[in-house]
């Protein structure tokens, strides 16, 4: 049903400024810059090895622009959603309904890049926020060929640039309910469920298409079934953590010192308030 984490979405107020900031963070130029006809939104996309990042901003009037402005007014800029890849939107919608969810019928979408001679086209199957526990979650079937969205061009030495997404962190105050959504309802593979007493955390890892969806909950905190889950942060893969740290520091970010990661054999550095205030980890395998 779902074969990948197709892309993650960051809501922004000023798309031009945000694009410059994320270009500096990733060390790559956007793969695509376009608009959504009739929706009042525009985006910049950065395609990486295993997913792509979408910066989404309101630029006019339309249903998508109204939804995005409401999110920005309520929560500010930052992570707002994630899209899972599917090969068959119609079959995906049927399966989600069979699992007790209420997705939309497949909705056609198009994007236009003024610098390219073609449109991109897709179908989205969107889940209501009360069922996704707050974040925007949907499935997407791409109707355009993969080369319609080329890899983001490197702008720095290749040992220092971001190559892909390692994991996305979902903060939850009801981990059992969130596990049921990503596992039983969406069908993602549960890879690890571990408690870290020293950090007062329970971390649950689901895997899809080589990317991890990490659920994070505080040990000892009261369960709040009514609280929305929050897309909290992103961990990006880099070939060399020291080279990546030096590059982002020179670009004006404030990374921590490089250190050994919790996973044996990894090296990491973090940026507590990365681009659009998204907590960011750079991780070298």
3D structure, described in words:
- This protein is α+β, with helices and mostly antiparallel strands.
- It folds into 2 domains: 4-148, 2,3-Dihydroxybiphenyl 1,2-Dioxygenase, domain 1, CATH 3.10.180; 164-284, 2,3-Dihydroxybiphenyl 1,2-Dioxygenase, domain 1, CATH 3.10.180.
- The protein is 21% helix and 38% strand.
- The protein has 6 helices and 16 strands.
- It has an 8-stranded mixed sheet.
- The mean pLDDT is 95.
Q: SSE layout and pairings?
A:
Layout: E1 4-11, H1 15-26, E2 32-36, E3 41-47, E4 52-58, H2 63-75, E5 78-85, H3 89-98, E6 107-112, E7 119-126, H4 129-132, E8 136-142, E9 164-171, H5 175-185, E10 189-196, E11 201-208, E12 211-218, E13 230-237, H6 241-250, E14 259-260, E15 267-271, E16 280-284
């Amino acid at each position: 049903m779902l074969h990948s984490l197709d892309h993650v979405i960051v809501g922004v107020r000023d798309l031009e400024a945000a694009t410059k900031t994320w270009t500096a963070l990733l060390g790559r130029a956007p793969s695509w810059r376009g608009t959504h006809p009739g929706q009042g939104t525009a985006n910049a996309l950065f395609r990486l090895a295993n997913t792509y990042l979408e910066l989404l901003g309101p630029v006019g009037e339309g249903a998508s622009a109204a939804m995005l402005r409401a999110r920005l007014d309520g929560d500010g800029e930052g992570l707002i959603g994630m899209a899972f890849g599917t090969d068959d939107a119609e079959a995906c919608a049927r399966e989600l309904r069979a699992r007790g969810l209420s997705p939309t019928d497949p909705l056609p979408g198009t994007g236009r890049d003024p610098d390219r001679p073609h449109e991109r086209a897709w179908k989205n199957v969107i889940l209501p926020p009360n069922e996704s526990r707050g974040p925007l979650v949907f499935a997407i079937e791409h109707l355009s060929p993969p080369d319609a969205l080329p890899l983001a061009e490197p702008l720095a030495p290749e040992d220092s640039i971001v190559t892909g997404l390692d994991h996305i962190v979902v903060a939850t105050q009801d981990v059992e309910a969130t596990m049921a959504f990503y596992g039983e309802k969406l069908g993602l593979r549960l890879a690890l469920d571990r408690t870290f007493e020293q950090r007062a955390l329970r971390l649950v890892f689901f895997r899809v298409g080589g990317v991890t969806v990490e659920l994070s909950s505080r040990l000892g905190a009261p369960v709040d079934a009514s609280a929305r889950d929050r897309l909290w942060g992103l961990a990006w893969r880099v070939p060399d953590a020291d080279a990546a740290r030096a590059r982002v520091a020179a670009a004006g970010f404030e990374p921590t010192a490089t250190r050994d990661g919790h996973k044996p054999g990894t090296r990491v550095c973090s940026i507590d308030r990365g681009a659009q205030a998204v907590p960011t980890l750079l991780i070298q395998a």
